[in-house]
Amino acid sequence: MIRRLYRALASLLVGLTLVGGCVETALVGVGATGALAGYKWMEGTLTRDYPRSLAEMDQAVQNTCKHFRIKISERRVTPTKATIAGVDANGEDVKINMDAQPNNITSVGVRMGGFMGNREASQMFHNQLAKELGL
To answer: What end-to-end distance do the CA atoms of the chain give, in Å?
Structure first.
């Protein structure tokens, strides 16, 4: 009886040790699933890839900024990148980065709000941007 109890405890400890290593793997898998879903939240910026050229995305982002009454204070465009900085109607900072990817895909990162960013506001921006693009 005692031997059976020791075996059960040993099995439990081995199982917990194995599961402990699997938790990290599971978390990495969850992160990968989130990236495949289209959005990635990292350091206060919500990023999504769009099947459009950089020029199309730049125009759509400007239109979306007008929709949210974002006053653009700085705009820089190069052949492979574009950035927009501004202030929304509530006085919060807005930063948008666009990076051209191969095959006419543009990665758009939106950071609305202060130091930590506002995920909900950034998500609303992306939703309106998708509507602007007809997606």
So the answer is: 65
Q: What is the spatial distance between Cα 25 and Cα 44, in angstroms, rounded to a whole number?
A: 24
Task: Convert the pLDDT of each residue in 14-32 to its tens digit.
Answer: 555 555 554 444 343 434 3
The DSSP code sequence of 22-89 is HHHHHHHHHHHHHHHTTEEEETTEEEEEESS-HHHHHHHHHHHHHHTT-EEEEEEE-SSEEEEEEE-T
Tell me the CATH number of domain 39-133, given options 3.30.310.80, 3.40.50.1000, 3.30.70.100, 3.30.70.1670: 3.30.310.80
Cβ(61)–Cβ(98) under 8 Å?
A: yes
The reply to whether the predicted model has a pTM over 0.85 is: no
The average pLDDT across 89-103 equals 92
Task: Find the angle CA(105)-CA(39)-CA(21) to the nearest 5 degrees.
Answer: 120
DSSP three-state, residue 2: helix
